Amino acid sequence: MLSTMQDGPLSLANLLRYAASVHADATVTTWTGATARRRTFGELGTRAAQLAHALRELGVGTSDRVATFMWNNTEHMEVYAAVPAMGAVLHALNIRLSPEQIVFTANHAEDRVVFVDGTLTSAFEEVLPRLRTVRHVIVVNGDAAGFRAPRGVEVHDYEPLLAARPGAYGFPVLDERSAAAMCYTSGTTGDPKGVVYSHRSLFLHAMHVTTPAAMGLTTGDTCLAIVPMFHINSWSLPFASMLSGASLLMPDRFLQPEPLLAMMEAERPTSAAAVPTIWTGLAARLAAHPQDISHLREVVVGGSAMPVTLMKTFEEQHRVKVVHGWGMTETSSVGTVAHPPARATGEDVWRYRMSQGRFAPLVEFRLKDDDGALVPHDGKSLGELEVRGPWITGSYYSPGDEPVEAGSFDDGWLRTGDVGRISPDGYLTLVDRAKDVIKSGGEWISSIDMENDVMAHPAVAEAAVFGVPDERWDERPCVAVVLRDGEADSVDAAVLREHLAGNWAKWQLPERWAFVAEIPKTSVGKFDKKVLRRQYAERRLAFVRLG
Amino acid sequence: MLSTMQDGPLSLANLLRYAASVHADATVTTWTGATARRRTFGELGTRAAQLAHALRELGVGTSDRVATFMWNNTEHMEVYAAVPAMGAVLHALNIRLSPEQIVFTANHAEDRVVFVDGTLTSAFEEVLPRLRTVRHVIVVNGDAAGFRAPRGVEVHDYEPLLAARPGAYGFPVLDERSAAAMCYTSGTTGDPKGVVYSHRSLFLHAMHVTTPAAMGLTTGDTCLAIVPMFHINSWSLPFASMLSGASLLMPDRFLQPEPLLAMMEAERPTSAAAVPTIWTGLAARLAAHPQDISHLREVVVGGSAMPVTLMKTFEEQHRVKVVHGWGMTETSSVGTVAHPPARATGEDVWRYRMSQGRFAPLVEFRLKDDDGALVPHDGKSLGELEVRGPWITGSYYSPGDEPVEAGSFDDGWLRTGDVGRISPDGYLTLVDRAKDVIKSGGEWISSIDMENDVMAHPAVAEAAVFGVPDERWDERPCVAVVLRDGEADSVDAAVLREHLAGNWAKWQLPERWAFVAEIPKTSVGKFDKKVLRRQYAERRLAFVRLG
Q1: Based on the structure, what is the number of domains in chain A?
Q2: Nearest CA in chain B to A343
Q3: Which residues does residue B514 pair with via DSSP β-bridges, in sequence order?
Q4: Which residue numbers delimit the AMP-dependent synthetase/ligase domain (chains A, B) (predicted)?
């Protein structure tokens, strides 16, 4: 039996029309260092239409990729509004990637047009000669005349391109499953991988972002989008603000604590989204230069966990509630948000708040062990997290015919590569990456939990825990320890093992302890356990063996 | 270009799984007159699975209609959870309809199974012999043995039917556009018309209900669902609570002010939804028996507008914010909700709050005049409201092949039959029904606005304004007036016309004034303008003519 409901698609063009009319007074504000420039959602509607006309004249058609190389600002929002609405595909290039990776992603996505901030033109000039498909560069708030482009690439100034064009555009009716935007994973191992979002997935995800289970955005809110628009579409804040009528506050390139706080003082945002590092910097600056930031009702952090002491600093000293979220490029960003359940009290609240959070209604979840068996959601058992749902990717983008699925998918579920536990009430706590978790005698040991415990010992400067092959147990934990200066005589492996015994079962305690001068690190400063495993395999890592 | 997103459906079975696990501790509480009975969403999951097994054993298959004849209570919620999840279609029969209309809707929907509350069995026994397709009656909290059923109808008790069945069910994966539930319009003219909701439409609508633009429901909320589950699915509160983890409070048959207030005192709901009449009764009771009801953060009223004085009484005396909403069976309920924009201050806030509200993001809207031309959204021009979107019906249900569209649809848009104006910021103000608005010289005059103004004169007891044919202007307003006792000498038509002159343009002022003993009314107490028009046409209505 069919329903009698209408069959219109979820559509970002409709969303733009809605925002530009019903929420015409909401604003997109960009900080310029000392002051702000501001446009309304009404103007956003007009300018997005003008931009669509301009792009069509440049030959941009359905499904063509239109890239940005930009900070978070008002014009970036205009590109966000226009490109998916006209049926093209928005690709916000990650300006933080290495030139090689920028070249790889732009060529892989086959970007035809790139919008470049005037303050980023020299970085972009450097990579442009290696971009094979780019035909047009549009310089935003800069000077196209001074831009050095290879032959075959036309360079335009943004404002003259829009000027005098009609303020309305006949946006097409699209299949809601058609591509609207794409992002690439940061690719710490191997090439970045492309994820292509649909109108449907972005709409549903943005709707969730506006609910109280996520950010609870509404008209009258001003949302400070620090998370970059090239980082999973700024966690969908551009679309969530259009849905809810919340105004957007954009920091452009002013991401240091001092200008961020000057902007907050002037613009008084009510909510914000950023990675924890930003807040570490803000806390330090606030300690020296007190400022009331309690206009921030709530702040969502993701990308990594924020230390509980820092969360408490913001809550107790600044009256700002910091909320954990977890997600990845492959999950359109929000998978979980750590609002505690209403019944939680006292320290229990903090236990919930330090988790990665509660799953969204449209994110199905399960844990799997090494044999592919389901792991119970008992708040204790560890497994690799797999997720499924309408805003979860089912493959990676390939310019050829075949989608790239290798190893990342399990019967329609996304394998996240994250290991954790899930409580009976749907809260996720991640403890390790799947490649780092130690699988010993059929049980899993979190390398991160264990190294954090070792590092809690006062004599220890740094410690990395990694798995090494073991005939009887398959794998056993091995600990590489850097002692603090002058502590070499005060502790040995037995002391550190005893230190662990309070928190770990006997069978989990590591036998192998390597005292080293430093822990090898990756380019982004993380422990490089691959190097440690190789040193161990090649017998280049001296260790003590206990028990 | 296709997205790489997964292609799973929006599914009420997934929603049930989510609620029963992640929000297992949320509750459905039913008032029993002096105390409450309570089950958790975890138990809801188990019992819905048991119910699905039972229904399958009774022969219920995909798309079969399963009806209810019940108050709002925990077991009704179990039927809501089980029936759509198993692929059958929920039809909550409106127990307030006349026996003839109940018979019509149950036969038209071809209901096979009906759940009946023990307190409603005698009313249902009366209609059952005329129900052609019902094969099973399931008595909830009553006595099946005492139920008089015609031959061919099996009668069961609810609890024994569930007992000892498995607590898990393999709910099928369904097309999200397949039927999940149906409701009938109340059909003040002609037969009730059926609207069939899909999994998609109910899911999207419920998601919207949880956003701050509507009710902002979240875990920790307790939502008092006074609006009946047979009235547009209780405005989707059963599904919105499963999405958000808000607990539900159900009044069962205790809808009088005294037990409602006793229930509120015991259960302290944080939000509520009901028609205005309920709140009129509560206000009267509260005046005589003061009680703190400020645990109610916000209350949504719909079905008709609440008088501003009553809204202010709740806000100022009881610290309860009452919010208008507008919708109809054909719009899954919520089309607009009257939260004022954040920038509004002072009396402007009340102007927004007394409107029908701001349109939801997924509800496209337009106004049309008599010639089918678009009317501007300038906050002044009147037109018939048309809406479009994924939770708006595109036809009416027909058991045959052809959907019923006659006159109610305009090129894919639903004609609401409501006349109003829309402000540039997307707020709807309804002024009349399309059949009652007076079309004079190409302009529209709201009969309701005008009769309210006439009734504002102290000498007037009641007044109805209706359109009568006019050679020059097509239509002109005619006023039927009932004067208060003893006022016949103090006012005449000229005085009342002069009274209108302050608010109306000269061309709008009515010439024809009929002084009558009473205004004819429909069975539900509304002015019957059809009768007045007929009396006028048949020259049975004596009137004075001015100007």
Answers
A1: 1
A2: B220
A3: B480
A4: 18-397
